[in-house]
Write a structure and sequence with these properties.
It is built from 5 helices and 7 strands; from the N terminus they run αααββααβββββ. It is α+β, with helices and mostly antiparallel strands and 226 residues long. Among the domains are: 76 residues, no CATH class; 62 residues, no CATH class. Strand 1 and strand 2 form a beta hairpin.
Length: 226
Amino acid sequence: MAKLTEEQKAERAAARARREALAAEEKDRQDTVRREAWRRKGTRLSWDEYEAGVPCRGCGEPMCDGLGDWPGLMYLTEEEKRDHEAMEERFRQLHRQCMSGRWSVSGSRVTHCFQCCPPPPLGPALIEELSEIFRSSPSAEDRKKDQDSWELILTCDHVTTLTQHRDHNYVRPVVRCPECQVRRGVVHSKRLGPAYTAEGVEVNRSDFPAGGLLAGDQSAPGSVPA
């Protein structure tokens, strides 16, 4: 078999990056449609409903059956094996057309589907914990000194920039295109450099050096640069 030239390798890498970006874009679109359907139909439970034991509005099963987590399959008793298989069969019957993964609540054996079953709501304690994290975060001005700009090429071929913390070595696979006004997959991303000057003034893209790469040149979404 003939050895690929460097040009052919680059073409294949570019085609693979575009395929992955389009796949990420489609998954993001499906997730958005699903969340919107849950909102429109009122499928999600409130915390009070969850605490009161209201069943999942997606499949009708309990959100938490209180039976405890399943032991490892090799540790199941014969009776537990029969119960496990019965629950597996019920899941297959309820979600035959969903073609999705599954989730469950800690301390519960019933499983739910990612496609039609919204996750349980956040409790007050967790909301307060998250709120405290946000309240203790640095101010917007303080965060500027730790932010870099990235140049992104999207599936629509528009080029845009993204600002994020310098510790991140890759960008999220789907972002909103300011030209199309829709979310697009990221085909290629390149770190340009600090997003702000020492005085906190935003750096224009034209001010970055030619090639502009500080570190982290990505040809596919989610890949970690060497």
